[in-house]
Design goal:
By secondary structure, this protein is of the alpha+beta class. 16% of the residues lie in helices and 42% in strands. The protein has a single domain, classed as Alpha-Beta Complex (Fumarylacetoacetate hydrolase, domain 2), CATH 3.90.850. GO terms for molecular function: catalytic activity.
Length: 227
């Protein structure tokens, strides 16, 4: 497994050897909103989850800090998420990532739709202890960027809409102890418009209390699919 290279708080380089990747699904805090979203996806063929929230165990090899990912076809899209990383020396850290997902595969198996796409992560991290007192005030956003460099806001919302990080940590550890080099994606924000792919996807996590931002932009390279 290759190491990921990060910088903590802009000044401390650190390498991270991911050993476990967990992605939280249906992690909204408002039960009615979650049920409405489940019904919307069921209408387009996505099966109802067996539990809410649910957790997908994926290959940590999917994690990447590259600025380009390869996908098959033009039917995948990103999802901005706060990310928790447990480092053996530096403790719990916070990053920004995208749960890039194959929407065609999602229609028949959500776990497969997530497993077939790389999971981009930004290069900078924060210390969890610095943000957990105001976790709910952190704001996650994403943008679609077209070939003319026009940016369209795709997702935006405070983390108060999602289960708190402490709750997610409790839920994940209840199934299996959280060991060093575990990575947890914490759930995504609702879309502001229709589900859309893009050649460029930009994500950010903004901290309005400490006035700082984690950000990442990545290109989606659609591989040719010859029948």
């Amino acid at each position: 497994m290759s190491s990921l290279q990060f910088v903590i708080n802009n000044d401390l380089p650190v390498h991270f050897d991911p050993a476990r990747l967990v992605i939280a699904g249906w992690a909204g805090r408002n039960v009615e909103e979650v049920e409405r979203h489940i019904a919307e996806l069921a209408a387009i063929g996505v099966k109802r989850p067996s539990t809410v929230p649910c957790f997908y165990e994926l290959s940590p090899a999917l994690l990447t800090s590259r600025e380009t990912i390869d996908v098959v076809g033009d039917h995948s899209s990103g999802e901005v998420e706060a990310v928790l990383l447990l480092h053996p020396e530096h403790g719990m850290l916070v990053g920004i990532g995208s749960d890039h997902t194959d929407r065609k595969a999602e229609g028949y198996d959500v776990a497969i739709s997530k497993q077939v796409c790389a999971k981009p992560m930004g290069p900078r991290l924060w210390r969890y202890d610095d943000v957990v007192p105001h976790w709910d005030q952190l704001v996650a956003r994403s943008w679609l960027i077209d070939d003319q460099a026009r940016r369209t806001l795709y997702q935006e919302g405070p983390l108060s809409r999602l289960l708190h990080a402490e709750q997610l940590l409790d839920d994940v550890s209840a199934a299996s102890a959280i060991a060093p080099y575990t990575v947890i994606f914490c759930g995504t924000q609702a879309l502001l418009g229709p589900l859309e792919p893009a050649h460029l996807f930009e994500i950010e996590l903004h901290d309005p209390v400490l006035d700082r931002t984690l950000a990442h932009r990545y290109r989606v390279n659609a591989l040719l699919h010859v029948e």
